[in-house]
Structures are given as C-alpha cells and as structure tokens.
Automatic annotation (TrEMBL):
Organism encoding this protein: Citrus sinensis (Sweet orange)
Lineage start: Eukaryota, Viridiplantae, Streptophyta, Embryophyta, Tracheophyta
InterPro entries documented for this protein: LRR_dom_sf
Name of the protein in question: NB-ARC domain-containing protein
SUPFAM superfamilies for this protein: L domain-like (SSF52058)
Length: 137
C-alpha cells in the first residue's frame, strides 16, 4: 500500500479475504488511531507489517478488531514512544517483532521489571524470548 489516506484504511480493513498486509512507508502520519482498526475490520488478517518511519504513537484499536492476527512486525518505527496499550487484548497474537529493537524499547519490554511488559506477556514470541519463522516453524 502506498500513501495510505484515512479513507483508504477504512476500505482496506473491510476486504473480506485479506490475510497479509504490509504498510511500507504508506503514510506520513505520526499517529494511528482506532479508526485504523475498527471492530469487524481486518477480520481474516493474520500478518501485519507496519513500517512508518515517522510513527510516534498507535493510540488504540477497538475491542474485537484484528480477531485473527498472529504476527505483528513494527519495522523502522524508530520514533514510536510506547507500544499500543490494547495490544494486551489481541489474544490471537503469537509473534511480535520490533526491528530494530532499540535499547529503550528492550528495557521497557524486558520480562522482569519492564514497564510495558504487561502488554506483550501473552505473546509467545516477543523481543527477548526468541523468534521463529512467520509461519511458526
């Protein structure tokens, strides 16, 4: 997807058979809001890769959005201050990758004492716990 507008995001999330979505420099937005992931949106999406160099904040996703998501990669989101609070409610998520993993993110996500670890503790493969291939092998 190239140069994603707000209206485009609303349409894309309603594609009934979309299983993989890569948003590579698709937006100059500094913030993703709940409209990006509405209830009923991305119903079959299993793999989501976001590479927004200017992204500073992903504010929220609506409860019930991304019901099939298994893999989330945040690629070169170097300005991202904190992980999405609602990530803790995406029960289907099996793997989270943050590339590159900055020291400040690593510190906040560490299993013991990391202030953001509660958001990812339900995810089997996260920074610091090792990775396998996207398909789980």
């Amino acid at each position: 997807v190239s140069h994603l507008s707000e209206n485009s995001a609303l349409v894309i999330q309603l594609l009934p058979n979309l299983k993989t979505l890569t948003l590579w420099l698709a937006s100059k937005a500094k913030q993703l809001e709940k409209e990006f992931c509405s209830v009923g949106g991305f119903h079959k999406l299993e793999i989501l890769i976001i590479a927004f160099h200017v992204l500073e904040e992903w504010t929220e996703i609506e409860e019930g959005a991304l019901p099939s998501l298994k893999y989330l990669q945040l690629h070169k989101c170097l300005k991202l201050r904190m992980l999405l609070e609602d990530l803790q409610f995406v029960a289907t998520l099996k793997q989270l990758q943050i590339l590159p993993l900055l020291d400040e993110h690593k510190e906040r996500l560490k299993p013991y004492g990391g202030e953001e670890n509660y958001k990812i503790r339900h995810i089997p493969q996260t920074p610091g716990r090792g990775y396998s291939r996207v398909d789980g092998r």
